[in-house]
Amino acid sequence: MELSVYTIEGKDTGRKVTLDERVFGIQPHTQSVYLDIKRYLAHQRQGTHKTKERAEVARTTKKHHRQKGTGGARHGSLKSPIHRGGGTVFGPRPHDYVVRLNIKTIRLARRSALSAKAAENAITVVEDFTLEKPKTKDFLNILKNLQLADKKSLVIIGDKDNNVYLSSRNLEQSKVVIASELNTYQIMNAQNLLISESALGKIQDTLTK
């Protein structure tokens, strides 16, 4: 598949890039995509949730009332879970949510996600660009020129650029990521991908190894 390369003014440069069929032209493997997205979302969880159990609640251990003669049930410590303010039964404990996948499955998932976007004609290639200073208006103008301002877009650049990143930070529907940090969730969560030329080369080099 060939795509035209555009400038940040939205004009066709007259040049074309060829998308590697091994990355952008495969039959999407939905199970791998599901597993990789599940892995990503699981890793976003801190796993620090905790409730106090019976042994950890600061309450008296004095017997609540006498054993017999009250007409009620027997009770010991007020730490018991059946009392208000008592410990929690089977509450959450701190643990991690790591989901492990081998590198082949992860790369297959990313190739599948990119191929799905290519099949939807949801990929735009732009020549490498930068901004003189962080300014949201300038970044938004680039999206408007490329007809992406009203779409949920993922902008993929080749290398870290603080001016570009800071300029996009206030835009709810746009996210900037460098090619080396691209993941399946980000691809599938966007309506359109705006990929710089250098980023395209890095993506193809990484996913064809």
TrEMBL record:
Is-annotated flag, keyword Lipoprotein? Answer: no
tRNA-binding as a keyword of this entry, yes or no, is no
Q: Name one Pfam family in it.
A: Ribosomal_L4
Q: Which GO terms describe its cellular component?
A: ribonucleoprotein complex; ribosome
Keywords in alphabetical order:
Ribonucleoprotein, Ribosomal protein, RNA-binding, rRNA-binding
One biological process term from GO is: translation
Which InterPro entries does the UniProt record give? Answer: Ribosomal_uL4 (IPR002136), Ribosomal_uL4-like (IPR013005), Ribosomal_uL4_dom_sf (IPR023574)
* Subunit description: Part of the 50S ribosomal subunit.
Q: What does this protein do?
A: One of the primary rRNA binding proteins, this protein initially binds near the 5'-end of the 23S rRNA. It is important during the early stages of 50S assembly. It makes multiple contacts with different domains of the 23S rRNA in the assembled 50S subunit and ribosome.
Q: So what family is this one in?
A: Belongs to the universal ribosomal protein uL4 family.
What name does the UniProt record give this protein?
Answer: Large ribosomal subunit protein uL4
Q: What is the lineage of its organism?
A: Bacteria, Pseudomonadati, Bacteroidota, Flavobacteriia, Flavobacteriales
Gene of origin? rplD
